[in-house]
Structures are given as structure tokens and as C-alpha cells.
Amino acid sequence: MNKELFSKFKETAVAVLPVAGVVFMLHLTIAPMPFGVLALFLSGTFLLIVGMTLFQLGSEVGMTPIGNQIGSKLVELKSLKIFLITAFLLGFLVTIAEPDLQVLGKQMPEQTMFSLFNMDVSVGQTLIYMVAIGVAIFLTIAVIRVIFGFDLSKLFFVLYLAVFALAYFTKPEYLAVSFDSGGVTTGPITVPFILALGVGIASVKKGADSETDSFGFVGLCSVGPIIAVAIMGMLAKGDASYDPTVIPEIETIGDVFMVYLKAFPTFFEEVALALSPIIAVYIFFQIVYLKLPKISLAKTLIGVLYTYIGLVIFLTAANVGFMPAGSYMGGTLAVLPYNWIIIPIGMLVGFFILMAEPAVYVLTVQVEDVTNGAITRKMMMTALMIGMSISVGMAMLRVITGISIWYLLIPGYAIALGLLFFVPKVFTAIAFDSGGVASGPMTATFLLPFATGACTAIGGNVLMDGFGVVAMVAMTPLVAIQILGAVYAIKAKRAEEEEAEELAEIVEEIEEEVEEYQLDLEYSIIELNCYDYE
How far apart are alpha carbons 134 and 225 in whole angstroms? Predict the structure, then answer.
């Protein structure tokens, strides 16, 4: 275990340090940070590495087996009613406490939006519940798709047409937020569980295409929140506003320590709330259906403990250490005389920050396992990093120019939906999963404050121009991974053609040899007949 822990720590450090290095170089050159912000960021970098290390180890040992076992058992029970009720409840309960969603909800205004059943409801809380309902419904749809074998490409095509139809009628200030919600929902709690649930279901379902059916769950769960928040925007009364990131006052190292000390209890509670529904359902399944040996159960629960501790540390570091740094640096770069530089800097940060997303690790490893190495983790990471870089660049372009998000969403999704009909289905499923996975806690706690901080500094409309960076991050992997799939399909076809040509050459050589042998045999028979005649 110690050797594996050290290996994970080393791998995580390699993923996180490039991002920290870019930010630190900006601090030394064109965007110096105050002592407090810098101290929080540097300490947060170390805690981020520790937290992500524990999370990755816990995810492999605990969360993935839980999802696989529950998914497999649900299929074996052959009760559609139990299956769908369980999927809906898990989708709702897990999402409602997803840390990424909590981060987005806290950045929304707290003033009363409308009254439901004589109760005043704030925008932030309403958003969280609407998103949870959206995920629950679409996780149920994802399960139904696998059970009845519906075509995933056609389903995505129809659903995104519905998404854009609803988005057209929602209030402008809710448009970017709705697409952002689809990205942040699938975070470090939901992704490992939903991916494993999908693999478990697909592995047991008779006649299932295990590669295609194993994926697509996260992608479908990302659609629900977009629709839910778009509807919320249509029903909302009054105008929404934005609550900017608060940068704490810090003068000494002791102040840094106290900020983290005050933050840890909050995330201990939030992560416990996020994990408790999964653990409760798992224990129920263990007692009633699974009945696993005590050793296996203990190993899984230890993995969950690693996941819990890792996520607490990771999210505390991301929120306390990275969010203020992102907001301050975005604001500083945006007011420079040459503020266009925020576009290439955003692209550089986006390129490296993807490696620090914990759920990306889970997806890329699972893709490599399920495809038996046909789609390697390196291939996935390269495509996602390029897509992430482009997406952040487009988001920064919106911040400094104020162009409508429609001008980027419509062409981007048009390309993504067009590619549905030209790439292998497994790549479509993986691409739409990747869109949700790429927009994780690092995006919500660094890139989103980076964009909103820049927008605030230049006096833009934060909800319309600052928000939307998560939407861009969630969109570009749909194109990048499907292009990877198209390249893969072309190479596979060429390989088949080359193999067929080689086989044809071998057959031709064999035929020539057989023909020569027949000629030799005929010549020998003629000679033998001549000899007998003599």
C-alpha cells in the first residue's frame, strides 16, 4: 500500500505542479499577488497533491467496486421498478451534495427569486435542487437506454436539440449558468460512482455491447442540469446577480493556518453528506443482496475512507487556496493595457489544469481498461488537454469582448452533433462523458473565478460574460474525442486494408506455389509415362 501511495503521490505531483508553476511565474512577472493570496495558493498546491493522491487510491479501492457491484446486482435482480427507483434516488441524493455544484451554488445570489408553497427560495439553493432533479431523471434515462438498447448517438442528437430549444427561451443571464451547471454536476463524487455503475450494468446485461454501453452515463447526466436550469430561468422572477469571490485578509503565516482551520469543518461535513447516500445504499445492498466476505467489505470501506479524507483535503485546498488566486489573477490580467494576453495565458493554464482534475484520472483509466488498451490513457489526455486549452481561450475571448455565448455554443455543438454519425459509437459515448468529467473542481474553483474576476475588473456582465467557462470546457471534449475517434477509425480501416492486402499477397504466393507444384507434378507424370512407354 505504501509503495502504491508513493506512486500516486508522484503521479499527482507531476499533474499539479505545472499549473502551480504557470501561476507562480505570472506572479513573478505581470500579475503579482499579495502575500496572503500567494501563501494560500502555495499551501493549497501541496494540500491539493495530498488530497488528490488519497482520492485516486480510494477511488480505485472503494468507489469503483461499489458502483460495479451495485450495478451488476441491479441487473441480476431483473426488477425494472427497483432498478429505476434506485437509479433516480442515487442520482438525486449524490448530486444534491456534489461539492462542485455547491461551489457554483455559492457563487449565485442569495436574494429571494420566487416563492414556492409560501416559502422564499434563493437562486443558489433552487439551482442545486433543480440540477439534482435533472441528474436523477437522466441517470434513470441512461439506465433505460442500456436495458432496452436505445441508440446513444440518436439519443444525444435529439436531447441536444431539445436543450437548445429550451435555452433559446430562457433568460439571457441564465443561459451560461445552465450550460455551466451541466459541467460542474459531474464532479469527483458522482463520476467514479456513475462510471462504475455503467460498467457494472453493461457487464451483466446479456448481449450488450460492453464498450459502448459502459459509457454515456455521465454524458446523459450532464444534459439534465442544462434543461433543468434553463427551465428555472424561464420561471424565474426578477433579475439574477452575482456574488463575487471574497479574498480573505491575511498578513502572517498564522492567518493562513487559521483560514484553512476554519474551512476544514465545512468540507468534512459537505463530503460526508455527499458520500453518505452511496454508503447507505451499498450497506443495504450488502446486507440484502451482495453478502460479500468481511475482508472484501472492509477493503472497500477503507477505500471509501481514503476517498473521504482525500476529497476533504482536495476541496479545501481548491476552494481556499485556488479560488482567491484565480479571482485575483483574472482581475489583474484583465486591467492590463495589453489585456488580450489573458487569452493565451488562459489557454496555457487550461492545458495543464486538466491533469489536476481527479475525475479525469478515473475516466481515462476506465476507458483504457474497458477498451483493452485500444484507447490509451495518453491518447485521451492529449485530446482532452488540447480541447481544454481551446475552451479556456474561447471563454477569455468572451470575457474581454462580451460576445454572446451563442456564437460559440451553436457552432461547437453543431460540429459535435455532426460527428455523431461518422465516428465509432464507443468514441461518442466516451466524448460526451469526457465533457462532464473535464469540468471538475479545478475548473469550478480556479478557472471560473479567473473568468468572473476578469469580467468584474473590466465592468462586464458577470452572469452573461464571466460564466460560461465551464460550458466551454464541457463542450470542446465532445469535439476533440470524436475527432480522435475519427482518426482512430481511419487508422483502423487502413490497418484492415493493409492486413487484407498482406493476406491477399500471401494467398497469391501460396496459389503460385501450388500452381508451380501442380506443373512439376504434371511434368513428373509425363516423364513417368514416357519411361513406362519405353
Answer: 5
- CA proximity to 197, closest of 65, 363, 68, 369: 68
CA-CA-CA-CA torsion sign (527, 530, 532, 534): negative
Phi, psi angle pair for 29, to nearest 5°: -115, -85
End-to-end CA distance of the chain: 88
334-358 per-position pLDDT tens digit: 889 988 999 999 898 888 888 777 6
Looking at residue 237, what DSSP letter applies? Answer: -
Separation in Å, CA 506 to CA 80, 148, 502, 503, 512: 53, 44, 6, 5, 10
With cell 477503507, the residue in question is 302
pLDDT tens-digit readout, 99-138: 667 667 666 655 444 444 445 556 667 778 888 899 999 9
CA distance 2 to 25: 33
Sequential DSSP letters for 97-123: T-HHHHHHHHTS--SEEEEETTEEEEH
Q: How many domains does the chain have?
A: 1
Distances (CA, A) of 387 to 26, 310, 341, 382, 480: 23, 27, 19, 9, 6
Q: How many helices (H) and strands (E) does the chain have?
A: 22, 2
